[in-house]
Design a protein that fits this description.
five-stranded antiparallel beta sheet, binds guanosine-5'-monophosphate, alpha+beta, binds zinc ion, 22% strand
Length: 111
């Protein structure tokens, strides 16, 4: 079975892109949970935060550089970054992604 976010990264499934380079894609979430809600993904398949190791940590660092750059370019100073790891934590797409949420008050702790 194919991976949804690998298909989006490859351009086989369209997305509303915010940023793209050779390693990373950022695109708006199809079901936004805040006025601004986009996802940052590595183009290579990594299952979740639980699969980060020395072989792919550079791409994860790059994802965070992209988060910083894109939020700055969008003029966003206050935002939340979330990565759900595993079913119980709410992960529904098994390809590492960072949610970037902004534009409303955020509660803590999360539900
Ligand atoms: P998770 O639940 O795994 O933390 O996050 C997956 C996210 O992907 C959800 O917020 C969901 O709305 C989003 N999503 C699922 N399918 C698609 C899609 O086809 N396109 C886009 N842009 N977002 C998607
Ligand atoms: Zn994938």
């Amino acid at each position: 079975m194919g991976c949804l976010f690998c298909s989006i990264a490859a351009g086989d499934i369209p997305s509303n892109k915010v940023y793209e380079d050779e390693k990373v894609l950022a695109f708006y979430d199809i079901a936004p949970q805040a006025p601004v809600h986009f996802l940052v993904i590595p183009k290579t398949h990594i299952q979740s935060c639980g699969a980060i190791d020395e072989s792919n940590a550079d791409i994860v660092a790059h994802c965070f550089q992209v988060i910083s750059k894109v939020t700055r370019e969008l003029g966003i100073s206050d935002f939340r970054v979330v990565s759900n790891c595993g079913q119980q934590a709410g992960q529904t797409v098994p390809h590492l992604h960072f949610h970037v949420l902004s534009g409303r008050d955020m509660t803590w702790p999360p539900g």
